[in-house]
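Step 1: inspect the first sequence and its tokens.
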Amino acid sequence: MVTIQKAGPNHIDGIAWVCTASYWSTYADLLSTEYIERMIKEFYIPERLLKEVTKTSKSWNGWIVAVENGEVIGAGVGGMISENHGELFVLYTDPGRRKEGLGSMILDAVTKELIEYGAKEQWVNVTKGNQKGIPFYEAKGFQFIHEQDEYGIIEGENFKALRYHRFLL
């Protein structure tokens, strides 16, 4: 049975694994190896994740995990980016567990927290060409707003992110 819960220090290795595996699975054909390795090293190392699972505020709601038989099979996190606007920062599932509803369950949990903090709207960035993420977010009511540079690009990189938005009830 899958449970959706707040992550704790015991989930760090699982979050790191699921985010790294899903990042490679999603972006290997869209982004350079150098970029992928740089982002994984910045965001999905245990030292950073330990700080993030113990930190909770309006701007960082803390990691939500999908757990089955003690194993993390999905992870996501969001926060408030202004008084009425929330953002989904990260949402990944075990690449072998796609299309099982895990992403929907995690998105719902993150969104519920954002609504509790006063969010009336929700934002997400999706890498241009990400045909795993784009249909998922569009099916959830997110609408494309504009294209922008991908986070953390360096000179010589031209990766783009698509900014999506939806209104919350």
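Step 2: inspect the second sequence and its tokens, then contrast the two.
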Amino acid sequence: MSASTLPQAPPTAPRPKRRPFFVVSLVLLRVFAVLHVIFAIMQPITIGQYLSGSYGMLAQHSIFGHLLSAASFLLGVTAIMYAVAGGRVWIAAVAAPLWLVENVQVGMGYARLLGVHVPLGVGLVTLAVVLAIGVFLPSAGRDRRPRAARTATPEGSGTA
């Protein structure tokens, strides 16, 4: 058989380049998600130590609450930048309103409304862990395909 009669592999599309804005926003998103989840996990740790008799930990619990609020604000802004750059929209939809909910959480703590503060805190820590895992999934590192690529059919597969 000559080289011209051998079956040829179908041509592969060149791998799309990731835009610098997308890469920077993804890196920042991951950094702020890690900081956010660390501060979130410190909340039950510090209040547990307070309840065990280390009364100075209540001040630490308050400090970590404010750090958590700052981290969630930065996380939300970065998540919006990431979505605009072509990242997963669900991450921005979860991260952006998180700042508001966490500020309500801080207010509930200062108001000593523990019936809301404790269960809301459990939910927020869980959400922080899920979000931190989500930004490190392989799909988070890929751009969303442009609309034209989603609706186009490959050549030869249409009905003619």
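Step 3: confirm your contrast with the notes below.
The radius of gyration is 23 Å. The chain has a mean pLDDT of 85.
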